[in-house]
Write a structure and sequence with these properties.
Helix content is 43%, strand content 15%. By secondary structure, it is an alpha/beta fold.
Length: 268
């Protein structure tokens, strides 16, 4: 029996939420646990690609045609667009700056909300991966809808800052619309990032989120840590850059929470 592949999209329409960092570290954390993971960089800023590959390599791929933009534009199977992320059990489909035009490219296509799902179908059905993790752009349009239409779960990273919750209601509305296109989609939860526990707005953020009905908030919060910035500068997940760091431990705890929830759905 083939293994069921779980697809998780990390999305927030507000930039600076720690979305790419969370996606990359959870993906790496899953690979450390022996899971086979495919990462999709669906954001034109290519931060997920830069989390694993040197900048010159990311630019080289972006300038060619072996990236997610061309795969989706040509509506091709994603199998031939994969590159190694540099760690065992971890592959990546890099982004391209041209992805900013995907809204335009998708508009005339039939069933345009499901183009990515079709591109992913062969890889997903092969059971080659335990997880496919996707880093969405900070927008709520046709391309973001493609990502949610191809996902089992949505994870929303939220920054613990005065403006961190700004636009969250719009994200929830978009999620509900995505569920109409993809009834299998579930909101896995909200993960609070960039936390400074000394600041009042962290407590305010947590109090506001805990008042939300039927919305899971992960137990693990990701605190501010200079090791995260250094790991990004070295094109590595923080767990690979400095395993002993506080943030590495927090991301592993978050990874375990993510897998626990996903495993529950896999059993059904």
């Amino acid at each position: 029996m083939k293994n069921k592949t779980t697809v998780i999209c990390f999305a927030n329409n507000k930039g600076g939420s720690g979305k790419s960092t969370t996606c990359s570290n959870v993906g790496y954390g899953l690979s450390l646990k022996g899971r086979r993971v495919l990462m999709l960089d669906a954001d034109m800023q290519a931060n997920l690609s830069l989390a694993f590959l040197p900048e010159e390599r990311v630019l080289e791929i972006a300038e060619g045609e072996k990236n997610l933009y061309y795969a989706v534009k040509k509506e091709e199977d994603l199998s031939d667009y994969r590159v190694s992320a540099g760690y065992e059990g971890l592959d990546l489909i890099p982004a391209s700056p041209l992805m900013s035009s995907l809204e335009y490219d998708l508009y005339p296509k039939e069933d345009r909300e499901f183009v990515l799902r079709k591109c992913l179908e062969r890889v997903r059905m092969s059971g080659e991966y335990d997880y496919i993790l996707m880093d969405a752009p900070p927008t709520l349009g046709g391309w973001a809808m493609n990502l949610l239409a191809a996902s089992d779960y949505l994870v929303i990273p939220v920054e613990a800052s005065p403006w961190g919750l700004f636009g969250l209601a719009n994200m929830f509305d978009f999620y509900r619309k995505a569920c109409e296109k993809n009834p299998q989609l579930s909101l896995m939860g909200i993960v609070v990032t960039k936390v400074d526990i000394r600041k009042n707005y962290f407590r305010q953020t947590m109090e506001t989120l805990q008042e939300l009905r039927d919305v899971h908030v992960f137990d693990t919060c990701i605190r501010m840590d200079s090791n995260i910035e250094w790991s990004q500068d070295n094109s590595k997940p923080v767990m690979a850059y400095k395993k002993s760091s506080r943030s590495a431990g927090e991301y592993m705890s978050l990874t375990e929470e993510v897998e626990k929830i996903a495993s529950g759905k896999k059993q059904h």
